[in-house]
Design goal:
heterodimer, A: alpha/beta, 44% helix, disordered C terminus, B: alpha/beta, six-stranded parallel beta sheet, 33% helix
């Protein structure tokens, strides 16, 4: 059986990889997380979780020892996304890892790609969304490292990955419930969904597929618009306000924030690397405090504005990334993944949505009565067959 | 009503040893003891942790304290605070009691009822006090809720639904949190919620429990409780998901909701149009009429009040709020939960995964 290291094992995608691979016996899983706190999810299983900062080559090499394959599911800040590839590749080589499966994103092609876009379309790192550029640069570095290195590389580019513990459906539900949901241009754009289990299936195929140095777009079979997705979630939360329709909202264009720029600066990273751990933490703390002060100043400035405004009269700027997603005209193809990996989505979109919405109930956000009752019944709680244990005769005093 | 400074005038110097210098000591006990020490009420004389770097780090706050890697570093303390991982609570507490110290042991009290009983027996045998750190018992909101239940102001409680937790963010300094011997989320934050159910409603008549440990420790757990008189309720805790963090109570004539990390605020309502967001204050009287006095203490002051309560009890000027005997009750409930627990339903697992999960519990 393969031994597979999972970087980012505490995250949304990483924790599902660990769960699925371990429960189905796909591989011997080694969860790797940045701090002890990250062990909370993997430690549901009797697995040996390892601790490593993915920007620390020595720690990472040690954490990868004994792994045949490493899956990179780390969700980092932009500076981490860009700084990590050479460190990961060096560590993987030193540890004798045979293959890296790198989880990138379909957003390397932009949130609203031109029709006909596929894996052969050249990538650009001068896009208006900094996240896209960071992921492009990470892919380029890994691809270049593979050309002169020993470790094989498979890059997966999933679309909007959703599922239990995600940020997408959870955030849509939250916004629908608190009345702040909106759709740009009526949400007629295509949402390039990838249910997390379909992505994990593609990852599983990538462990052994006879491919190297290739990138693959990964998505669900079905096509859904953003409006349809919001409607599907809204139906599970009766009484929530419908999303506002914004036809031509002001856009908020994200620049690389000051802190990101400081952190990504080579001099800062070099200095941090030399410091002992407590001082390193303090350095990061101080940087955070500067960020907090800037945020507080911004907030104070906004609070000085006149109170004579209508409660819902103005439209806050919409992030460019969100507006572009809602206007997406194109469904990414998974043809290359089908051809070379043998990929076929294993979970239909409707099933994925149903499981995701039911998971909101699991987390304590009651959804519509049908879902809530299903969850309770299936959990054996509150349902008619619930078997409560007598405590009278036990040692509860 | 307890205050952080109550009883201070009556204290002489109280010498305190801290056993376990991890995140809990760094974030709670050290600043609390430092704050109380400034008033000359107590002095930290020993810091103990198997990792010598940790007493050194905490020692920056208490430069006069002796530092050591085992209990022998404790020379002259009167009170020991045991803030080590739960696996060490019983052994360390018993040793310290046998050496004649009073002990404030962090929750969960121990790993088993047998350990609890041994700790209680050691306290009795040596005529020392054993307190357990259920610091939420010092929240004004907790007492206000109990008053509401006991007085029947909203009528009888009909049901409760407590959910607490979020993605684990505690700056743990070791993996001990996630080892089998420390227990999972139910033993960690669930023990607070279960303790409060006992404080508010008494002993349940029935319970059912489920969790998601699959060869490791639970990150999610749910307990359903029912009581004589028809009251039913649920306690759900998670170190995996961001939850609403809300304790909801439905009474015959109103409702109440409380965020379990808020020491003195809650929401309540009894009509259809408006709800109250309330904060607790001490009861006072002006011109022989009741008025809201000083604001109830916040979380950190409540934590300090716990230490003050133990110190007062050592001085013989008060009773322990949460003794070993009192804490044993929730440990009994917890043990029943662990014994009876079944696999929680995770709606995202497919059939093969469910079978795998079930097999891992056998």
């Amino acid at each position: 059986m393969l031994t597979v290291g999972v970087l980012g094992a505490s995250g949304f995608i990483g924790s599902r990889i660990v769960e699925k691979f371990h429960l189905r016996g796909v591989a011997q899983v080694v969860p790797i997380v940045r701090s002890y706190a990250g062990l909370a999810r993997p430690s549901r299983f009797a697995l040996e979780g390892r601790i490593a900062d993915t920007l620390d080559v020595e720690a990472l090499t040690k954490a990868l020892s004994g792994c045949d394959i490493v899956i990179n599911a780390v969700l980092g800040a932009y500076y981490q996304i860009i700084a990590q590839p050479p460190i990961l590749y060096r560590a993987a080589e030193a540890a004798g890892v045979k293959r890296i499966v790198h989880i990138s994103t379909a957003s390397v092609h932009g949130q609203d790609p031109s029709p006909g876009t596929d894996e052969t379309t050249p990538l650009r790192d001068d896009q208006p969304v900094p996240y896209n550029n960071a992921k492009v640069r990470a892919e380029r570095q890994l691809t270049a490292l593979r050309r002169r290195g020993r470790v094989e590389l498979v890059i997966l580019r999933p679309g909007i990955v959703f599922g239990p513990r995600d940020i997408w459906v959870g955030e849509i539900a939250r916004r629908l419930l608190d009345g702040t949901a909106y759709l740009v241009d009526g949400g007629r754009g295509i949402c390039n969904t990838a249910y997390v289990d379909n992505l994990v299936h593609a990852i599983e195929l990538s462990l052994v597929a006879r491919v190297d140095g290739e990138a693959f777009l990964i998505g669900d079979e079905e096509t859904i618009t953003w409006a349809e997705l919001y409607d599907r979630v809204a139906r599970a939360f009766p009484g929530c306000a419908p999303p506002r329709i914004l036809d031509d909202p002001p856009l908020a264009i994200e620049g690389a924030p000051l802190l990101q720029r400081v952190r990504s600066h080579k001099m800062w990273r070099d200095v941090m690397h030399l410091l002992p751990e407590p001082l390193k933490e303090r350095g990061h703390d101080h940087l955070h405090r500067v960020g907090d002060m800037v945020a507080a100043l911004r907030q104070a400035r906004s609070q000085n504005r006149s109170e004579w405004v209508m409660a819902d009269g103005s439209v806050a700027p919409v992030p460019l990334e969100t507006a572009s997603l809602h206007r997406c005209r194109y469904k990414f193809p998974s043809a290359k993944a089908r051809r070379l990996l043998g990929y076929t989505p294993i979970v239909p979109l409707e099933d994925g949505l149903s499981r995701t919405i039911r998971s909101q109930c699991f987390a304590g956000y009651e959804t519509d009565p049908v879902f809530a009752q299903q969850a309770r019944d299936s959990a054996g709680m509150f349902g008619p067959g619930a078997a409560l244990q007598e405590t009278r005769d036990r040692e509860i005093v | 009503m307890l205050h952080a400074r109550s009883g201070i005038a009556r204290w002489g110097e109280l010498r305190v040893a801290v056993v376990g210098c991890g995140a809990l000591t760094e974030l709670f006990y050290a600043p609390a003891l430092d704050c109380l020490g400034e008033s000359q009420a107590l002095r930290v004389t020993a810091l103990v942790d198997p990792d010598p770097a940790r007493p050194a780090a905490i020692g920056r706050t208490f430069p006069q304290a002796r530092r050591g890697t085992d209990l022998d570093a404790i020379a002259d303390a009167v009170l020991a605070i045991v803030a080590s991982p739960p696996a060490f609570h019983a052994e360390q507490t018993i040793t310290l009691l046998e050496r004649g110290l009073h002990v404030l042991c962090e929750k969960p009290m121990a790993r088993s009822l047998a350990e609890c009983d041994a700790m209680i027996a050691a306290a009795r045998r040596n005529d020392r006090l054993l307190a357990v750190g259920h610091f939420k018992r010092f929240f004004p909101a907790v007492h206000q809720i109990r008053d509401l239940i006991d007085t029947g102001a909203f009528g009888l409680p009909r049901f409760f639904d407590f959910i607490e937790g979020g993605k684990f963010g505690w700056p743990a300094r070791s993996r001990s949190f996630f080892e089998q011997r420390s227990g999972g989320v139910l033993a960690d934050i669930g023990v607070h919620a279960l303790d409060l159910t006992l404080f508010w409603f008494g002993r349940p008549q029935h319970l059912a429990c489920e969790d998601d440990a699959m060869g490791g420790v639970d990150a999610n757990a749910r307990v359903r409780l029912s009581y004589s008189g028809g009251l039913e309720g649920r306690v759900a805790v998670s170190r995996d998901w961001d939850t609403p963090n809300r304790f909801f109570f439905q009474f015959e004539r109103g409702w109440l909701a409380w965020n379990p990390v808020d020491a003195n605020g809650f929401e309540l309502g009894w009509g259809d149009n408006y709800a109250l967001k309330a904060t607790t204050h001490t009861m006072a009287r002006v011109l022989d009429r009741p008025v809201a006095g000083a604001a109830g203490v916040a979380r950190h002051q409540a934590f300090m009040n716990q230490i003050v309560n133990v110190a007062d009890a050592i001085r013989g000027v008060g009773r322990l709020a949460v003794s070993g005997e009192e804490a044993r009750k929730v440990m009994a409930l917890l043990q029943t939960c662990h014994t009876e627990s079944t696999l929680i339903d995770m709606p995202w697992l497919d059939a093969a995964e469910r079978a795998g999960a079930q097999a891992l519990r056998c």
